[in-house]
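Holo model, adenosine-5'-triphosphate. Inputs:
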Amino acid sequence: MQRTLIKDLPRHIGEEVKVQGWLQTLRDQKSMQFLVLRDKTGLVQVAHWKKGNPELAETISKLGTESALTIVGKVVANEVVRLGGLEIQLEDLKVEGLAETPLPFDPFGEVLPDQDFRLDWRYLDLRRERNRLIFEVQTTLEAAMRAYWLGHDFIEMHSPKILGAASESGAELFSLKYFETTAYLAQSPQFYKQMAMAAGFERVFEIGPVFRADPSFTSRHMTEFTGVDMEISWIESHEDVMVFIENWLAYCYAAVQEKHGEQIKEQFGTELTVPSLPFPRLSMAEAYQILKDQNYALPPEQKGDLDPGAERALGKYIKDTYNHDFVFVTDWPFSVRPFYHMLHEDNPSLTKSFDLLGKGLEITTGAQREHRYEVLASQAQQKGLSLEPIQDYLNFFRYGCPPHGGFGLGLSRLLMIMMDLPNIREAVYLFRGPNRLRP
Ligand code: ATP
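Output:
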């Protein structure tokens, strides 16, 4: 017999069906047993008359909640049943996966244990519809990203994650034993995206793992995350990259809103709106002036940079002033940007770069890159880097590289702002942080 999904049961009144799912609750009464079965489309009540099959009644009595079951029975309309006005009269039941008792925690209980404990039993926590929705949204989001790129002649790349030398600063690199030598885990596909520009691919994207040996214990940092990266050639400035992102993001938001907008509202209380174009833009100088006007005091070590409080303050300012969730903060000082960001010709202390903040959280960093070998090498030296470890990278620019730029975006950070999730641990399938390497 074919499986029927719970959401389709109203079309099968009077018929015998097979339903498969988890035992959410069991009420074991004197003559009747009532099971609430859950599959990913909903809940249904299953009724069993004990005397009809005492042996089965005994099996049911011993079932732990959350056991995985296959049941067969007849669908009957019953208006007193709150779950959809129908129930299944049980004929047969097979225990596919017995749940031990007690559960480490009841994912459907009124009070949930703290997040760290739930991460130990992540698969149980993911049984909640709310949590599964995050990954359904992620799936739609990635599909929309790809659809947009494919419609704009992009090539997908998969760059290596094991590197022989530090790619950027070196400070955030995990090292590993690699036969007789030491290798490093990639902290971004940056250099390889740029190699694709030198290779004449013109437009590339990559969605892949990124590793950061950053001992951060914040609600928005992980030591391993999924990076969404893109790079395009023949641009005139970072403005071309920003125009691309805002159109691409609006397209992705529309896809998610169409498919999941209602469920997101229901589960998270968040009204997902497609952002209007263009997104507001603020130069770093303007951003500093706004923060000053608001008496926001940046800690001195943040000179030229923004800290999370400043990002939130700017997010609020943009919301209040433009009723927009996004803002590009552009033209960052070279002192706080990597050596490969291109400098403004008329003000070489500033880069042609931007961060994109969504609801006051940094989700993207992007820039026009310096593509001229001599200038790039000199910028690296200005940053105190020795050229030898980055020579393979510098070589990409020796035989004709077009002007180009791109960005890197954290997939989980985008999910956080789409659904107003307070912590990145909720927005990722399995969190990896300085203190968490399991399960
Ligand atoms: P932050 O200032 O928040 O630490 P960053 O400046 O180091 O971020 P980039 O190196 O520019 O970030 O990376 C590009 C994007 O990748 C960021 O805008 C963010 O969305 C995401 N990202 C960066 N670091 C992390 C991390 N540790 N965990 C999750 N996402 C991250």
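Residues 351 and 404 are 14 Å apart (CA to CA). The mean pLDDT is 96.
Archived with the compound record.
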